[in-house]
Amino acid sequence: MFWSPIAYAQGLIRDAEIERTLRIIAEPIIKAAGIGRVNIFIINSNSPNAFATGGNNVFLSSGLIRRMKNVEMLQSVIAHEIGHLTGGHLAQRAANIGSANTAAGVGVLLGILTAAAGGGGAGVGVAAATSSAGQRNFLAFTRAQESAADQAGARYMARAGINPAAALDVLNIFRGQEALNISRQDSYAITHPLHSQRIADLKTVVAAYKGNVSTQNPNVDYWYARSVAKFNGFIGSPKGTLRRVSKTDKGEIATLTRAIAYHRLPNKKKSMVEIKRLLAMRPADPYYQELYGQMLLENGNASAATAAYAKAVNKLPKDAQILAGLGRAQLAQNTKSSTQAALKTLKRSYARDPRNGRMLRDLGVAYAKTGNPGMASITSAERYALASNFKLAAVHAERAEKLLPQGSTGWRKAVDILSIAKRTSKIRKKR
Fold first, then answer.
1. Distance, CA of 282 to CA of 284 (rounded, Å)
2. Strand (E) or helix (H) holding 40
3. Strand ranges (E), 373-413
4. Which of 9, 52, 146, 218 meets the CB 3.0–4.6 Å disulfide criterion with 81?
5. Phi/psi of residue 122, each to 5°?
């Protein structure tokens, strides 16, 4: 449907601004929990859900984010998942799986991308977000663990000066779903079992909240509103989105929403009017320059898109997502010099975040166009491994293994991917 700044990366939604906003939203809770770094990923799924995995990773579905009515409700979900991390519930859940084959399979699914990307701390388990009964059961905690995570999350919110009553608002959205047929229940209700005692216990914790001094970023509501505008503009029906925004509202958030919705219709003339109005409001904003670059690129103006992305990179030279956009625009210019520039830019993006499927595709093309078929093959193998398509990943890894110097970094990645592909194939056969 679209690539960037919101980009589907094999089941994940990648966007530089939204990821930054999530870090701002989660920061006071993480600090209150004393847990250190937490990685937050967005799953492309309309079904509302959230879960935590090893490596301090928290996953939120786009459906859940859009279901929240304010930033505090989203913070309460993040706080709850951090409560699972600090409570040691992940280890307890793994110990209770019961089947060695199931445990091994889930372990591969959750850890596969770390190995496929050549190391790193994320290990993004996109496959674990599917709706299969086995994986839903794996993601679900016990009722006691859910209640403990509720109370821990509420305490972290209170310490950060955020009213934990928002956690009750979230539970009330899904309350009563356990009486429905499981096929009609939201995923969140299945993986976060609700019960009256759990809600009663949480109410007790919330009642003790006395309004501590807030450690919230003072601009958190502003950045949250911008993220919601992006979700609504890019994921919702563009015509429906436009109907919900007043034509007379010339404010920044309304203008951002219209710019994206008009671009998706597509209505180039109106989308350009709106994005240029945004740029006039905030000419130094790198995320608006990034959005402008996307619109120009998707309208066939690669040269102007490159200039817009370059302005964004000038402001945020270390942002992997924006670097990927610049590399894509440079590649689209399709000249020898621009392709060389694209290769350099995309390698910088890869070094900072190798989990972007579209970036890997572009990087593979850049390697191929610059006469390096071995690196093109291993990059393609990584991309397919990221998508859990190990059949095609193995094809490209075998090619890379033959083309690349033995013992080189690329050659070792090829060997690793082939090994993972064989292990995954054996696990699937056992099932």
1. 6
2. strand 39-43
3. none
4. 52
5. -85, -60
Q: How far apart are CA 288 and CA 309, in angstroms?
A: 10
Residue 176 one-letter amino acid: G
| 73 occurs within a structural domain | yes
CATH code at 83? 3.30.2010.10
Tell me how far apart the alpha carbons of residues 23 and 26 are, in angstroms, rounded to a whole number: 5
Side chain identity, residue 117:
A
What pTM does this model have? 0.85
Write the pLDDT tens digit of every residue in 356-365: 889 999 999 9
Q: Is 55 left (phi over 0), alpha (psi -120 to 50) or beta?
A: left
As a dihedral over the C-alpha atoms of residue 227, residue 230, residue 232, residue 238, rounded to 10 degrees, the angle is: 170
- If one counts every other C-beta atom within 10 angstroms of the C-beta of residue 371, the result is 8
| CA nearest neighbour of 383 among 409, 416, 357 | 357
What pLDDT digit, counting tens, does each position of 225-274 carry?
A: 999 999 989 988 999 999 999 999 999 999 999 999 999 999 999 999 99
Tally of structural domains, the chain: 1
- Of all helices (H) and strands (E), which one includes residue 50? strand 50-53
Q: Cα 407 to chain center, whole Å?
A: 33
User: Residue 294: which pLDDT band, with cuts at 50, 70 and 90?
Assistant: very high
299 occurs within a structural domain: no
How far is 267 from 261, CA to CA, in rounded Å? 9
> Residue 190 and residue 50: Cα distance in Å, rounded?
11
pLDDT at site 389: 81
Let me know the angle formed at the C-alpha of 363 by 359 and 366, rounded to the nearest 5 degrees.
Answer: 140
Instruction: Report how far apart, in Å, the C-alpha atoms of 139 and of each of 52, 192, 206, 244 are.
Output: 8, 9, 26, 36
Strand order in the sheet with 57-61: 7-9, 12-14, 39-43, 57-61, 50-53
Q: What is the residue range of 44's domain?
A: 7-207
Run of H or E residues at 39: strand 39-43
Give the residue among 257, 252, 253, 255 at the shortest CA–CA distance from 240: 257
In-domain check, residue 178:
yes
Mean predicted lDDT score pLDDT of the chain: 84
Question: Token pair of 339, please?
Answer: 């392709």
On whether residue 282 sits in a domain, the answer given is no
